[in-house]
Design brief:
The protein is 25% helix and 39% strand. It is an alpha+beta fold.
Length: 368
């Protein structure tokens, strides 16, 4: 009985050991196949050669455009509108009379004071001539005539200024906005008649984090863009940097100017601003080539049609590329498409070497 039980246990132990050996061999073969690329079919990928490129350190922000010269056109005195001499949206010259208020009383006052000035000027000149020639006029009388003339001159200048205030002139050349008043309307001091913008140069104010305070300097180039103009870009320069950092936002203000000779950029437009801090030559690769595993960043390097993982260190990020500061050298071939199907050590087939019907969707149609 004991011998039979022992034989049974021995046989069971032999079967279990054989099963474990077979399972272990199967696992080892699968692991070896994964490491050596022993799949029945290599993974189709696209590769690219690592090369140097220009890396630009940038900071981006948003801001709103405004004309460097921009005013609300207002009257300095109250009155009824007599004339409007502009068309909304047109370009006007400096000192052009835009709006004229009723000036009948002011004009009459100017004419009266001008007549008084002419008479006082004549009397003064006559008295001064007689005094110099020893004629029948005393020094006191001559001085009185001179004072009367000076008073008349001052009164006339005041009347001219009052008359001039009845006409609102353009303070500089620019583009006028809408008409906010009509002929015959009574306006008060400070009523906005229209707006005037000199759009030949546009100013954009924006804010950036305080960590860039020492990096941004006057005169640095900026690129601005907006959805209103699609892919078009406009070039400008940094013109002013605020001397204070906001204690709440921890950011500081910057102003940039952008030439706008065609005046296609209006005031008040929301724009994206990019400031280029520095440029240098460095290794760049497409961002799509990166693989993130935990805290590590990896790429697949093509080593004789075998994809090997390699750890890399990232530098500055661009829109579609990234700087590599360590882990790659110029001339390395890296996988840029098809990495989702790869494992370390997998065999690969370069997409451009494969027939079109075997290419992955992302690579079809790209063969040269």
């Amino acid at each position: 009985m004991n011998a039979r039980l022992g034989a049974v246990l021995l046989a069971a132990a032999i079967v279990l050991a054989a099963g474990l050996y077979i399972f272990s061999s199967y696992v080892d073969r699968n692991a070896q196949s994964a490491r050596t690329g022993g799949q029945a079919r290599s993974v189709l990928v696209e590769v690219d050669t690592v090369k140097m490129g220009t890396v630009r350190d940038r900071v981006e922000a948003v801001g709103t455009t405004r004309a460097v010269k921009s005013v609300n056109v207002v009257p300095l005195v109250a009155g009824r509108v007599e004339e409007i001499n502009f068309i909304p949206g047109e370009q006007v010259k400096e000192k052009l009379a835009l709006v004229r208020l009723n000036d009948a009383e002011a004009r009459a006052q100017e004419q009266e004071t001008r007549a008084e000035l002419n008479r006082a000027e004549f009397d003064n000149e006559r008295a001064q001539t007689l005094l110099k020639s020893g004629g029948s006029v005393s020094r006191a009388t001559a001085e009185e005539k001179e004072a009367t003339y000076l008073i008349a001159k001052a009164r006339h200048e005041a009347a001219v200024a009052t008359l001039d205030e009845r006409t609102v002139h353009a303070p500089f050349s620019g583009k006028v906005g809408f008409r906010n008043v009509d002929i015959g309307e009574y306006v008060s001091v400070g009523t906005v008649l229209t707006t005037l913008d000199d759009l030949r140069t546009i100013e954009i104010e924006f804010s950036v984090p305080e960590i860039y305070y020492g990096s941004i300097k006057d005169g640095m180039p900026v690129i601005v863009r907006t959805l209103a103009f699609g892919r078009k870009r406009f070039k400008g320069t940094v013109s002013q940097i605020d001397s204070r950092i906001d204690s709440v936002s921890r950011a500081f203000r910057i102003k940039a100017v952008v030439p706008n000779e065609t005046e296609e950029i209006p005031a008040g437009l929301f724009m994206n601003v990019r400031v280029t801090l520095a440029e240098r030559e460095a290794i760049k690769i497409p961002q799509e080539a990166l693989v993130f595993q935990g805290q590590e960043t990896l790429v697949y390097v093509d080593e004789n049609n075998v994809a090997l993982q390699r750890r890399v260190t990232l530098g500055s990020r661009q829109r579609q590329s990234v700087e590599i500061t360590d882990g790659l050298k110029v001339g390395d071939r890296i996988v840029v498409k098809g990495i989702q199907n790869l494992r370390d050590g997998a065999r690969i087939k370069i997409a451009t070497d494969a027939p079109d019907d075997q290419l992955p969707p992302a690579a079809q149609g790209k063969k040269s």
